[in-house]
């Protein structure tokens, strides 16, 4: 059976998505950040870690659900994006409450983080090389202002990628349809034989 004739198309592959990889970096760095700077009994700490985790998990779940539901994939990808927005607000709150500066997106420090991110094109789906996986943006050593702003930059990158991914999913749905339409077409084609 040709790929174009299959009712259940290829799906998954989320580990190769740059949005997933970036969300994973944000999640790992958020765990480190919260261990260092947020009281372990604070509800905010749980909320931040869960928001970061939610973004990663919803990208994965949406990618797997895409086999039979483009609607679910779109919804979960958007939930991942919304979770990152919640996390972004937590980092902005942290800076404001501590009296620390929020970097302008075009400041030299923010541009440095973005350039570093753009130059890191390693495929983190390959888990055999774990040399720089644990803390690629040095959150373990960074001062609170630098750590929070670095994470804000990374969240913005992940959000940008998810926005683009959502647009592509919308286009794909409009052009190719969904699972129900594929099932109907396949059934009609089979009846004509």
CATH topology: de novo design (two linked rop proteins)
Structural class: mainly alpha
* Main pleated-sheet profile: none
| Average pLDDT taken over every residue | 87
Helix count, DSSP H or I runs of 4 or more residues: 6
What is the helix/strand order?
HHHHHH
> Helical percent range?
55-70%
Question: Mind telling me the CATH class?
Answer: Mainly Alpha
The end-to-end distance, rounded to whole angstroms, is 15 Å
Number of strands: 0
User: Which stretches of 5+ consecutive residues score pLDDT under 50?
Assistant: none
Work out the strand percent. Answer: under 5%
Overview of this protein structure:
The protein has helices at residues 18-37, 43-65, 70-98, 108-119, 144-176, 179-192. By secondary structure, the protein is mostly helical. It has one domain (13-118, 140-192): 23S rRNA-intervening sequence (de novo design (two linked rop proteins), Up-down Bundle). Helix 1 (18-37) packs antiparallel against helix 2, helix 1 (18-37) packs antiparallel against helix 5 (144-176) and helix 4 (108-119) crosses helix 5. The radius of gyration is 20 Å and the shape is elongated. The chain starts with 17 loop residues before the first helix and ends with a helix.
């Amino acid at each position: 059976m040709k790929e174009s004739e299959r009712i259940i198309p290829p799906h998954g592959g989320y580990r190769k998505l740059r949005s997933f990889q970036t969300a994973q970096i944000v999640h790992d760095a958020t765990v480190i950040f919260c261990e260092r700077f947020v009281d372990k009994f604070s509800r905010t700490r749980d909320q931040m870690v869960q928001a970061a985790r939610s973004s990663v998990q919803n990208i994965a779940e949406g990618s797997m659900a895409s086999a039979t539901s483009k609607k679910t994939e779109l919804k979960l990808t958007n939930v991942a994006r919304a979770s990152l927005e919640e996390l972004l607000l937590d980092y902005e709150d942290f800076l404001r409450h501590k009296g620390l500066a929020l970097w302008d997106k075009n400041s030299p420090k923010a541009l440095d983080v973005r350039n570093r991110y753009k130059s890191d094109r390693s495929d983190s789906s390959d888990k055999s090389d774990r040399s720089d996986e644990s803390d690629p943006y040095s959150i373990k050593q960074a001062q609170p202002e630098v750590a929070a702003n670095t994470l804000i930059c990374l969240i913005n990158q992940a959000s940008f990628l998810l926005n683009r991914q959502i647009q592509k999913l919308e286009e794909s749905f409009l052009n190719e349809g969904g699972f129900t339409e594929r099932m109907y077409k396949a059934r009609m084609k089979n009846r004509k034989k």
